[in-house]
């Protein structure tokens, strides 16, 4: 079977949706030449009315997409760097997200905001390395963080077909992942449904995005001592609380590994909900970035502010001891 | 080193301008090599080809004037007087770097020299320069602020908002647009409606286009604008026409993106600021400056690569100016 990379999966999802639905179009910076590779070949295949290179005007083109969406189109915006979402935060959170309710249900805003290369790209420093998916979850904007190529394909497809705005973060550390799957094996993955990547009895590790791969590696490393279940929510909002509840009902223990800042991050929400809803046999532990993290440039420092495998292994050991 | 740098030249003299463009050129060429060797992680946006702009503008400035720079900022930082060794150490993420290894290529800053920092967000620095200019005026005196930005930035709302504020409040700020024809792969003609100087003119800001390949032409325009700002005449905009000789970013050296025809690149590189300025020097002066620059850059590389890496224990040092410590992540 052919090996499909995460990046190629995004590319294929875009191509398939552009082909399937004439309302879909892609816009963003350098998408014609496909600097990020995600739009490779699409300009040639679909032409300038479906693949639009924009000037560096993120605020305008984000609300431009809202306007087109209000008029029946399904725009997909590619943002070159995660920090550009801060620039367009008003346009996404205060405009696109609010139209449906504020118009008493008259409006729908089916825009997809795609960030290929979120989180640290190692060596891109403070303004290029954030992973702000928890901000959008907090605001209530549907938000997906696929971990694998097949989920990248499936979640991007669902995002494009969804009638609400959806942010899709494709973590830089996951873009190179490959999976042995053919085209027929790919399909939409519903928003709000998690995935158990590995079953286990002793502890549930909730891992998000690229950290799913770290969690699987740690689970394997510790396999002789502890049976780890790896739960990937896939969408951070809406969150698959029932899926997580079922997992925790089996294991009784919870660790969350999350590339958000600790304060009000995604792990904070998972742990809070667990405290309210789940019967845990020991207090949960979260592994996150520090509060208010600014990713320093030097590589060792960059790594030091991101959750890592040793921290995750220690967290697993800790919940088992208690 | 002391021996070779003993002969000082005013930065605005022909020799001084040549020294600056030559230094930036050789610095960038060596930095690209260090990207290739893996000593600089994350790559750089080479300034090669655009040296005349940093050299000309900064030659019109005093040490107490301030600049804000861009993702393609090494030239600005060096021209404003930053130490090449510490600048290169910053690019290599070393503890001796200008920012103690915390900022890297896109954030190099040296506040002692009025370098308020490169900035990785396009268009973000114009408003910062406007605020700095206002504060400078409030202090009394006649200091000015310069914002360097690319043609890509002229379509950012915040930059246009900054032009308005600067004009409205007659701030001593110089907006320097380096029009190299491209924002990454997008041409100016595909991106800019109207003109770049027209944006300044719309706010009543004196705006001119100059040959950004000629350090003298840039210096003349910058002097006029800086003199006006110091005299209370408000902001100016100077559009410098230039060409980027190298990649948008060094990742392009490995990627297959193609957006500039070989012919275009060849002819774009024909007018070279280093040659233009070098031809104004006697052979003797030129050789002497070249040797001195070579020595300086060799020493900078040796200093950078010989410097220690910062200790990861201090990864969150300086997060807060007050010294407040952040709660760690990890499993704690
Ligand atoms: C607001 C913003 N949008 C997009 C980017 C990604 N990006 C970095 S440099 C660049 C092109 C900038 O072009 P220009 O301003 O002309 O400067 P040049 O690179 O030509 O020096 C882009 C799109 C960014 N850093 N900031
Ligand atoms: Mg440009």
How do the strands and helices of this protein lay out in sequence?
The complex is a heterodimer of chains A (322) and B (332).
Chain A lengths: L2 E3 H15 L3 E5 L13 H5 L4 E3 L4 H13 L3 E5 L5 H4 L1 H7 L3 H4 L9 E7 L14 H7 L2 E3 L4 H13 L4 E6 L6 E3 L14 E4 L4 E5 L3 H11 L6 E5 L2 E3 L3 H11 L2 E8 L4 H12 L7 E5 L9 H6 L4 H13 L1
Chain B lengths: L13 H23 L14 H9 L6 E3 L5 H6 L4 H8 L33 H14 L6 E6 L6 H12 L4 E7 L2 E2 L2 E2 H4 L4 H7 L4 E5 L3 H16 L5 E6 L20 H7 L4 H6 L4 H24 L26
Parallel strand pairs in B: 1-2, 2-3, 3-7, 6-7
Antiparallel strand pairs in B: 4-5
Helix pairs in contact in B: 1-2, 1-12, 2-9, 4-12, 5-6
The site of magnesium ion (MG) has 6 residues of chain B, from strand 4.
Structure explained in plain terms:
The complex is a heterodimer of chains A (322) and B (332). Helices cover 38% and strands 20% of the residues of chain A. Chain A folds into two domains: 3-185, 3-Layer(aba) Sandwich (Rossmann fold), CATH 3.40.50.970; 195-321, Rossmann fold (3-Layer(aba) Sandwich). Chain A has 13 helices and 14 strands. With 322 residues, chain A is an alpha/beta fold. The N and C termini of chain A lie far apart (45 Å). In chain A, strand 10, helix 9 and strand 11 (228-232) form a beta-alpha-beta unit. Chain A has helices at residues 6-20, 42-46, 58-70, 84-87, 89-95, 99-102, 133-139, 149-161, 211-221, 241-251, 266-277, 299-304, 309-321, and strands at residues 3-5, 24-28, 51-53, 74-78, 112-118, 142-144, 166-171, 178-180, 195-198, 203-207, 228-232, 235-237, 254-261, 285-289. Chain B is of the alpha/beta class. Chain B has one domain (2-301): Thiamin diphosphate (ThDP)-binding fold, Pyr/PP domains (Rossmann fold, 3-Layer(aba) Sandwich), CATH 3.40.50. Chain B has helices at residues 14-36, 51-59, 74-79, 84-91, 125-138, 157-168, 188-191, 196-202, 215-230, 262-268, 273-278, 283-306, and strands at residues 66-68, 145-150, 173-179, 182-183, 186-187, 207-211, 236-241. In chain B, strand 4 (182-183) and strand 5 (186-187) form a beta hairpin. Chain B is globular. Chain B starts with 13 loop residues before the first helix and ends in a 26-residue tail after the last helix. The chains are: A alpha/beta (322), B alpha/beta (332). At the A-B interface, strand 14, helix 12 and helix 13 of A face loops of B.
